[in-house]
């Protein structure tokens, strides 16, 4: 039960609301992927949030963990530009 001082087992490698660790503890070691601003489709894979779709004119970031405005360049030094196109 929440608030009763007991613990709940979660899969922090794949849990959407406790990705990478516990959320809300002190210190908080995880992330709630479902709370990423502007994200429409998210997942938790190997303890990291992954954004696959963003709302409106937002674009998935080059690292795939947030939504940003406009066009972004490849952080790994490539010449490609990542842009989400509307269908």
UniProtKB/TrEMBL annotation:
InterPro entries xref list: CPL1-like, PriA/CPL1_fungi
Protein CPL1-like domain span: 7-68
Domain of life: Eukaryota
Pfam families reported for this sequence: CPL1-like (PF21671)
Name of protein: Protein CPL1-like domain-containing protein
Native organism: Mycena alexandri
């Amino acid at each position: 039960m929440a608030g009763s001082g007991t613990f709940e087992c979660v899969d922090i490698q794949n849990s959407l609301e406790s990705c990478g660790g516990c959320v809300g503890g002190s210190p908080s070691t995880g992330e709630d992927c479902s709370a990423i601003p502007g994200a429409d489709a998210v997942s938790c894979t190997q303890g990291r949030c992954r954004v696959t779709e963003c709302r409106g004119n937002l674009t998935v970031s080059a690292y795939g963990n947030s939504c940003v405005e406009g066009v972004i360049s490849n952080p790994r030094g490539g010449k490609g530009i990542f842009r989400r196109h509307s269908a």
